[in-house]
Amino acid sequence: MAPSLDDESSLFNFVVRDGNGVKGIVDSGISKVPRPYIQPPAEQINKKNASKCEIPPIDLSKLDGPEHDEVANQIVRAAETLGFFQVVNHGVPIQLLDTLKQTAHNFFGLPAERKAVYRKEVSPSPLVKYGTSFVPEKEKALEWKDYISMAYTNENEALQQWPMECRDVALPYLKTSHEMVKKLLDALMANLGVELDDSNIDAFIGKKMVNMNFYPTCPNPELTVGVGRHSDMGTLTILLQDGIGGLYVKVPEDIDMEKKGE
């Protein structure tokens, strides 16, 4: 049953409690963004104030050759300024990444009752959380996204507790990308005079998790956001985008780069 867009309580129950998520609203055939999802003007993204990043991707394969120092400096420079950079030739098979994206679509395409099992209030595992927005019960304006978050403790627990629709692809991705993460941390920590080895790498990486975010097609994308402005708390976030893209990175005002504040 489709929610009443004018009744915020009905909408909240449909999206959050019943596990339909934003995808459920879109599937119901809406033609406009419901009021709870309309962001304040200051939080809406004005594309006129944005420009395409022209910084070329960093070729991680060159860390293993004579250009190691140059590439390591590129990583450090990007981390110290934008805090974000693209990498290529990273060693994670493209086929695995494509399968991972398809796995995400498959999960979010499940019936609401299958996904609602993992809502944070009722999830059978503390490692798995399905939800929408960030803290929907407290936010003044909701985010246009659904997500599944899977924390990693060890392989056995992941195999037992992660959703069966995700684990057989998400787990190999986490393990395969570990070498890429180690290369990035090696470069960043070496700049601080710290040498990583197998005895301390896990301490620097810390908690590991795989998040899958889904942003359903939006009738008024200029009025809302998939994820609001934030800084991640972890050591590193490895972000896999699809062909649609949509990531915005704010250029700080106090660094030596053009187009500050964009």
Automatic annotation (TrEMBL):
What keywords were assigned to this record?
A: Iron, Metal-binding, Oxidoreductase
Molecular function terms from GO: metal ion binding; oxidoreductase activity
| Pfam families assigned | 2OG-FeII_Oxy, DIOX_N
Task: Please give the Gene3D superfamilies that the UniProt record associates with this protein.
Answer: B-lactam Antibiotic, Isopenicillin N Synthase, Chain
Q: Where is the Isopenicillin N synthase-like Fe(2+) 2OG dioxygenase domain?
A: 209-249
Q: Which residues form the Non-haem dioxygenase N-terminal domain?
A: 55-163
Question: Which family does this protein fall into?
Answer: Belongs to the iron/ascorbate-dependent oxidoreductase family.
Listed name of the protein: Fe2OG dioxygenase domain-containing protein
Q: Which organism is it from?
A: Gossypium klotzschianum
The upper taxonomy is:
Eukaryota, Viridiplantae, Streptophyta, Embryophyta, Tracheophyta
